[in-house]
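hiii so my PI (J.) wants the whole complex modelled not just the main chain, which honestly fair. so below is everything: two entries, each one labled with what it is. i double checked the lines twice but i was tired so who knows lol
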Amino acid sequence: MGQIEWAMWANEQALASGLILITGGIVATAGRFTQWYFGAYSIVAGVFVCLLEYPRGKRKKGSTMERWGQKYMTSVVKLFGPLTRNYYVRAVLHLLLSVPAGFLLATILGTACLAIASGIYLLAAVRGEQWTPIEPKPRERPQIGGTIKQPPTNPPPRPPAEARKKPSEEEAAAAGGPPGGPQANPIPVTDEVV
Amino acid sequence: MGNCMVNHWFSVLFLAVWLGLNIFLFVDAFLKYEKADRYYYTRKILGLCSRTLRKQLDHNLTFHKLVAYMICLHTAIHIIAHLFNFDRYSRSRQATDGSLASILSSLSHDEKKGGSWLNPIQFRNTTVEYVTFTSIAGLTGVIMTIALILMVTSATEFIRRSYFEVFWYTHHLFIFYILGLGIHGIGGIVRGQTEESINEGHPHKCAEYFEMWDDHDCHCRLPEFEGQPPESWKWILAPVILYICERILRFYRSQQKVVITKVVMHPSKVLELQMNKRGFSMEVGQYIFVNCPSISLLEWHPFTLTSAPEEDFFSIHIRAAGDWTENLIRAFEQQYSPIPRIEVDGPFGTASEDVFQYEVAVLVGAGIGVTPFASILKSIWYKFQCADHNLKTKKIYFYWICRETGAFSWFNDLLTSLEQEMEKLGKVGFLNYRLFLTGWDSNISVVGVFLCGPRTLAKSLRKCCHRYSSLDPRKVQFYFNKENF
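here's the output for the full assembly
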C-alpha cells in the first residue's frame, strides 16, 4: 500500500461531491423547499468545487490520464500558486464550503461527501502530497531536411544485407521490401502468406 | 455495427431483456402507487419510488458496472422523489387551513389508539432533517448512499489502475450497503389504507366529505393506515445467499495446501512457479488467484495458468509490475531463506477455453499477455503427442509482441519443440507464428528507414519516425528517407 497518492482519490470524491451539491441544490430550488436559498448556495458552491477539482494533478510516479479538456482549467488553477498547490488549504476550503449546505436535507448529502473529500485531502497533505499541473509536452519541430544525412547512394533494387545484423529477429519498421529479380539475396527471404 | 451484433448477439439479447425487465418493474411499481386504492390518500399528500434488480453472469465485470450505474441512477431518482415527499409531508403537517392534507396529517400516532397515522412527521415543529436521521429508513438511506458514493469514486478507471488497493478495500463497503438495503423499509413509513378501512368507507365515496369525518352521523369514518412491509429483502435474498456460498467455497478452496515443485527465474524479471494442489484440475487459458500471506495477508492477484491440463503440475508466470509482484519475486530470489507459502484459489474460466471450437484461431499476445496462449500451445503439443487428430482446429496464427529479446526466452523451448513436432507429423502449415519486437537495445543508435510508396504512407511513416526518435529515452534516432520516382 506504499505508493498510494490519496490526493487522487480525494480529487474524484470532491468532483463527485460538487456534482451532488449541484443536483441537490437544483432539486431544492426548483421544488421551492423550505429554506430553498441554501439550495441556491449549494449550486454555486458545487459549480466552484467542480471547476477547482476538474484539472487532475500530476502523479508522482507514472503517467497521468488527463480529463478531457482540462488544460483550460489547469491554467486558471495554476495562477493561484500555493493556494491551489497546497492540500491543507483545499482541505479547509472544502470543509468550510460544505457547512452551509448541511442546513438543508436536499443538500446534506453533498455536505457529507465534500467533508469526506476534505478529510482525504487532509490525509494527503499530511503525507506531503501537492498539486502539480500537467503541462503539455513541447513538440519538437522537425527540421526540414535535417534527417537526411546524405542522399541514398544505392538506388533500388538493392539487397537488404548490410542493414541486418541479427537474422533471427524480424523488425516491424517498414523497410524497403526486397524486390524479386535476378539478384541473389545473401539471406534467403521467403514471402509467406499470412 | 453489423459485425458487433453478430459477435455479441447473446449479450445484446440478454441486456435487452434485463433493461426491459427493469423498465417493466419501474413502471409497475409506479402504477401501483399511482393507481391503487389503498394509496389514494397517500397520493393526496404526495409522490413515489422504484426498485432495482440484480443478477450475475459470465461477463460479470461489465454487467457489474452496468448494474452499478443503474443503482446510481435509481438511487438518485429515489432520493429526489423522497425529498419532494418529505417537503410535502412537512407542509401538510404545518397546514392550518383544514384541507384534506392537514386533516390526514393530524391522524394520531398514538399506538394505543391504533397508530393509524399517515404523515410520518409527527409534530408541527419537527424538521425533515430530524425525521431523516431518527427514522430507520432515513438513517440507513444516508449510510447506504454515502457507502455507494465512496465505492463509485474509488472505482473509477484511473483510481483502479493506479491505486488498486484503495479501490479494493473501499469496495468492501458494499457490506454496509446490502445490510442497509435489507432493513431500509422496516419502519413502514410508506403507508396505505387498511382493507377494513376501505371497506367501511371507500376513498372514492368518502374523500369529499372529509370535513365531516368527525361527526358521528357521517357515514364515513376517519381512515386508518398501516405501514407497507419492507420488500427489498425479497430482491436481495437470493443473490446474497449465492454470494455467501461462493465466498465460503472460495475460502475453503484457498485453505487447501499448495506444494511448490519448481521455481524458475527468467530474464526480464519473470518468475515461473510450478505447483501442485490436491483436487486441482484446469482447462486451457484459465486463471487462478494467488495470495502470499508473508507479503500481504489480504491481497489476491489473478494470474493466467501457463501449463497445459495434460501436465501433472500447474504453473504461472509472474512479471514484476507493482509492489506485490516485485516483493514476491524478491522473496523467491532469496536462496537461503525458506520458500514463502502460497495460497491458490480457482481456477476460473475465460474465453480462451473456446479456442478449440474454431477451425482457424488467431492468437495475439502482448508481452506477459501471451500466457493463456502458452497454455493452449502446450496443450496442442500434448494432443499431438497422444495422436489426438479429432481437433476441430486446423490452423493457428500466433502473434507475439514483445519489448525485449530476453522476453522470448520464456517459451523458446516450447515454440521450437512445437515446430519440430509439426514437421514430424507433416502438419507444417498448422502453426504459423510471428514475433514482433517493439523495443530496441541501446547498442542500436541509428536506424535508417526507407520507403518507396504512396504519399499518404510516407506522411504517416515520417510522423512515426519523428515520434519515436524524440521520445525514446534510449536516444534511438530514426532517419526517414523517402525516394521519389
